[in-house]
Structures are given as C-alpha cells and as structure tokens.
Design goal:
With 120 residues, the chain is mostly beta strands. 0% of the residues lie in helices and 59% in strands. Strands 2, 4, 5, 6, 9, 10 and 11 form a seven-stranded mixed sheet that branches. Strands 1-3-8-7 form a four-stranded antiparallel sheet, with no helix packed on it.
C-alpha cells in the first residue's frame, strides 16, 4: 500500500498564495504521474494539475497561469504553488499518485484531502 499525506491548506485572503505538498510513502514500486484535483460539495472532482516523472505538466483551464505544479522524484513529493487565489478556488484539494506496479499496470492512490478556503 502507498500512503499520500497532504499539507499546506488553510485560509487565505483573495489575491493571496498557498503552497500545497503531498508526500507518497509505503510500498512504492515507482511513482508515475502525480497530480492535484479539487472538489466542492455537490460537484464532481476536477483536475487542477498533473505532472509526470519527466516534468511534463497539464493544467485545468481555471488555474492556468496562476498555479504551478512541481515534484521531487527522489522524495516522492509533489507540490502545488497557488498564486492569485480567488474565492472560487475554495475546495478540498486531493493529491493523486499512480504507482507503476508492472509494465502495463498503474495503481492510483488518493490522499485524504486538504481544505483550501479563500475568503476575506
């Protein structure tokens, strides 16, 4: 099993910044893509950003230009730098990691989620 532990959420004013971190630990084979998703009550979980081992990134349209995802492969850690935060960014943010358990198989894991609240 792989465990994901997120940190860095909290309350911030509009226009402010936060940095989320997520560390993967446990019986890891090789972490492939990692990413962040978010969810508000009553809505589907949506993509924030993903990053593969080579550093190639993909962002959801609503965060492009404001958020930056990065990772440290040696530490099995992924980060999300969030700038110019807006009230609409308020959500529970979930970390995702995919463990390559075989050549043709990826096993996804999810963190417990960390609350981000943007409010004055």
């Amino acid at each position: 099993q792989v465990q994901l532990v997120e940190s860095g959420g909290g309350l911030v004013q509009p226009g402010g910044s936060l940095r989320l971190s997520c560390v993967a630990s446990g019986r890891i084979v090789s972490i492939s893509a990692m990413g962040w998703y978010r969810q508000v009550p009553g809505k589907q979980r949506e993509l924030v950003a993903t990053i593969n081992r080579d550093g190639n990134t993909n962002y959801g349209d609503v965060v492009k230009g404001r958020f930056t995802i990065s990772r440290d492969n040696a530490k099995n850690t992924v980060y999300l730098q969030m700038n110019s935060l807006e009230p609409e960014d308020t959500a529970v943010y979930y970390c995702n990691a995919n463990d390559r358990v075989s050549i043709s198989s990826l096993r996804p894991y999810w963190g417990q989620g960390t609350q981000v609240t943007v409010s004055s």
